[in-house]
Amino acid sequence: MEESAQPARTAAGSRFLVDFLSDPRRWGVLVAVVLSAGAIWAGLSAVPTQGMAGGATSAPREGFLAPDFRLTLLGGGEVALSELRGQVVIVNLWASWCPPCRAEMPALQEAYEAYRDRGLEILAVNTTYQDSQAAAAGFVQEYGLTFPVPLDQTGEVSRSYLLRALPTSFFIDRDGVIQAVVIGGPMSRTTIRTTVERLLGDE
Amino acid sequence: MFPILQIGPLAIQLPGLLLLAGVWVGSAMIEREAPKHRLSGATLGSLVFYGLVAGLLGARLGYALRYWTVYAEDPLGLVSLNPNTLSAAEGVAAALLVGLVLARRHRLPLWSTLDAFTPGLAAFAVFVSLADLSSGSAFGAPTSLPWAIELWGAARHPSQIYAILLAVVVVVAIRRLGRRPAFSGLLFLAWLAMTAAGRLFLEAFRGDSVIALGSLRAAQLISLIVLGGALVGMHVRARAALKD
Hints:
The structure holds 2 protein chains of 2 kinds.
Chain A: H1 2-22, H2 24-44, E1 70-72, E2 78-80, E3 88-94, H3 99-115, E4 120-126, H4 133-143, H5 156-160, E5 168-172, E6 178-183, H6 189-201
Parallel strand pairs in A: 3-4
Antiparallel strand pairs in A: 1-2, 3-5, 5-6
Chain B: E1 4-7, E2 10-13, H1 14-33, H2 41-66, H3 68-73, H4 88-105, H5 110-135, E3 149-151, E4 154-156, H6 159-177, H7 186-202, E5 211-212, E6 216-217, H8 218-243
Helix pairs in contact in B: 1-2, 1-5, 2-4, 5-6, 5-7, 6-7, 7-8
């Protein structure tokens, strides 16, 4: 007796469901109510301004303003990211002891030579707080790097960019907004070139 | 938020790992669900596998086609592991196309097959939201509510947690509904309706919505259309079931 009760109830339940679903009036009313409520909700949650995500907020993420920094350069001088507005910038965080950083440097140098004239700048920020200035200088010489190498002595920039893996690269458009983040590496030549071409093309 | 899992020298990207786990759990559930719908688990498993492979290939080729001059010079770039150089739309199209071709070749019945996929899809959605939480994607709008989380320079709605909760509710509802479905297609359409309704509701708390038609959120418009389609589909399938 017990065993037959369960299927009978579910059969009745599914019978009721099929009847309800197939009844054009009852189901039609329910659908109309649900869809109207949905449309009203969509209207209520419309966004007044078109600037959705980032806007003026700075965060190390696509769609947000790249966090600004001012650092001394290897070999002297200073650089501030905000002074490079108008150019496409790759901020690449690296250390001399990190094998994938080594592996992607030649591709970055190549991209720099190919796109510099069209407005590409590369800031290869050395994470000096976990590296050494001498090792960084040797590295730059070994690979014949010609782009500026800012030194993050205190780790402040790495923290503001939430650095979790080396290398990490941020592709920043002419308005200073991050358009792509590549965590880990090495980046292939094609990754660098296609991303840069996309940003340079946005003129 | 915690994109990297550091295990000794190995830096594993947690979001990718979660998605992989989701694919694994989802496809295992699909294979287990198949016999309930008189389908072969192995066939559906291969459908998932080839669909995924086609999706990945399509996504990379679609991206490469856009920048074909760069890839022509350096074709090895095609095999890069970087997810940035994948194009989602082409990937989804390729996966669906291959899935459709395979389904036709195996003469799979449309509605039962979709039903068999449903519990796996519902479970996969949980992992997608977990991956979003771990990478900080699909983030919320700024808010001053007490349960706001600090993310990307603002106190925001924990939209990823809302999405996880919703996905878990959907998994439970699908499980209950799937015990004795009244007709084929009901499970899938109910899942589609719940997912669309949930997205329609939760999109309001997102801080990264794509805007369409002036100031409306595109995801809500699409969800509204999908929801309507699913509800009408349930009616059509129920009538077909009555005739049998």
